[in-house]
Amino acid sequence: xxxxxxxxxxxxxxxxxxxxxxxxxxxxxxxxxxxxxxxxxxxxxxxxxxxxxxxxxxxxxxxxxxxxxxxxxxxxxxxxxxxxxxxxxxxxxxxxxxxxxxxxxxxxxxxxxxxxxxxxxxxxxxxxxxxxxxxxxxxxxxxxxxxxxxxxxxxxxxxxxxxxxxxxxxxxxxxxxxxxxxxxxxxxxxxxxxxxxxxxxxxxxxxxxxxxxxxxxxxxxxxxxxxxxxxxxxxxxxxxxxxxxxxxxxxxxxxxxxxxxxxxxxxxxxxxxxxxxxxxxxxxxxxxxxxxxxxxxxxxxxxxxxxxxxxxxxxxxxxxxxxxxxxxxxxxxxxxxxxxxxxxxxxxxxxxxxx
Length: 355
What we know:
Elements lengths: L31 H11 L3 E11 L5 E12 L3 E8 L2 H4 L6 H20 L4 H4 L5 H4 L9 H8 L17 H19 L16 H12 L5 H17 L11 H16 L5 H23 L14 E3 L12 E3 L17 E2 L13
Antiparallel strand pairs: 1-2, 2-3, 4-5, 5-6
């Protein structure tokens, strides 16, 4: 029996496994099952937990609107992923909660894997080898063809005008095409594992529980720092106070911010206060030294005593230092009318005074 070679977990997926984005969707993708196969064939031990997110579907109905899951790979840690349900699916009776949860769980799983680096090339847009980059997909559709198809010229037509209104036959054809698109979208990842939806819980509880699990290993001080930053983030982004009505984008953005603050540099408050105190102490010492009364100053022009008036000035415009010599003939700094004076910011303040 030939032993199967273990594959590298984080190697880019072969181009033959990458599927083109369905109509109306953005970005190529690799089906859920291939992620599971990669984890299995790489030989790692992993676990995956997932819960449904319930919310208002926009029509006043409580439906599954997303999924939150966490994958843990032995020796590599854990990452969380969030998947959402398209609004038109949540509002359409053709899509039940089981189907919607399956799709959201699949997105959450792949996004969690992406945080480890598995499949990240599908998000970053990086390419594989030259041979893979020029290879034709199983359906014969190449990247060059996709780029050519993307170059579409759009002409704006006023459908309110009588001559532009569609006939009953044309409307029927459009409805048929729309039904086919819905059918294709339902089968998009039919090869994904089937997962039953867990009991109903509020979205707000899911978010709070997820954040609590993420912060479990941090110190209380670090937790408080992250939560305060998260609260500021919510306020700055003008998110609703009720997490139960957050959109998937808001939920993912908030959880990404929490994760970022967890991994960022954190300085305990005591250390910060100590550092600030040391800095302020140095400033105070220098200020006190600068403002301390001096009775040892001598005029560089006549070598006579200089008065330190900083603590007895009548106005701020009065000089800080004044030579005691009042005779122009005795002091070369005398103006003939005024004794030589200096301020602390004077350009000719004698360096030997030590200010």
